[in-house]
Design goal:
The structure is a homodimer. Chain A is mainly α. Helices cover 73% and strands 3% of the residues of chain A. The structure holds a DNA duplex.
Chain lengths: 146, 146
DNA sequence: TCTTGACCTAAAGTTAGGTTTAGGTTGTAC
DNA sequence: GTACAACCTAAACCTAACTTTAGGTCAAGA
């Protein structure tokens, strides 16, 4: 059993954020002491791990709550939950591809400014950067503009 | 030269978004017709490509404006701009690592629900999923929990 | 001439995901 | 018995990045 302060430190999340998640219904099974103090058990900790994961993959709080609702409903929702994770996997892979394109653009810009800094000016480079691009950078450039 | 409507279609961005970017000072060189209508030239188009790239890597509008200001100031800011792209490259690589961890967690969950769906219940699986995990999934699981 | 479509502005509104504030309770150490 | 830390709630506030609204200009075609 963990207090909200302990969980806050474990996950490096502010206490009000944990309360906010609770208010939004993300901890279905959260117990309380008679005085009203929250008690996080291993299930809540695992839930929080899943919450963090789904948030990082771009899911909204209300979608995460829906998932938590499904969990609470038991085995009848197993297929739905499975589908959700398969879709999320697809979504993450899409994000990775997009991020790779962004990185390609940034790699090109790094080369561009490296060269411009060496020359002390970007005037000449601006004119025919395409001709002067090394092959590795050309590929980044082309990928980034597609 | 392109109208705001053409640019909107080219980049699949709403017209008010382009106006908003302009108001925020993201197009330093944007020309206007005497009547006030915006004319996007190749420079503005290239600027928009950079804006999209920097936004995708998580940069804020005001940081992007600062970069555009540097561009307008000429060669004296080349080092700053180079530094910015190097830092952004680092940031994107960090994001990719994080996304990989998220994917690992989701891969584990896909396996979990695959197995649970086959059995029609997650009761048994919940008890000793660690013992039953295939080696490939175990690695995802461990990575995701680090 | 009148209507239509594409553009303009300023200002108000929206949304998600928190964060802050104000005021109150509880349990333990001195 | 009082001070202190750690918890609680409800409600107001905040921020970024748009989006919508309301009202207006302008050029071309019927």
């Amino acid at each position: 059993m963990y207090s909200i302060g302990q969980v806050s430190k474990m996950f490096d999340l502010p206490i009000p954020t944990l309360r906010y998640y609770d208010k939004e219904g993300l901890f279905r099974d959260l117990e309380r002491e008679p005085s009203g103090i929250r008690k996080f058990n291993d299930q809540s900790i695992e839930a929080l791990r899943v919450i963090e994961c789904l948030k990082k993959s771009g899911m909204q709080i209300k979608e995460i709550r829906e998932f938590m609702d499904w969990c609470a409903q038991g085995d009848s929702t197993l297929e739905k939950r499975k589908e959700m994770f398969y879709q999320q996997r697809k979504e993450i892979k899409r994000q990775m591809e997009e991020l790779q394109k962004t990185l390609d653009m940034v790699e090109y810009k790094c080369w561009y400014y490296d060269t411009a800094c060496e020359e002390g000016s970007e005037k000449d480079l601006k004119k025919d950067f395409e001709k002067r691009m090394p092959e590795a950078i050309r590929q980044c450039f082309e990928n980034a503009h597609r």
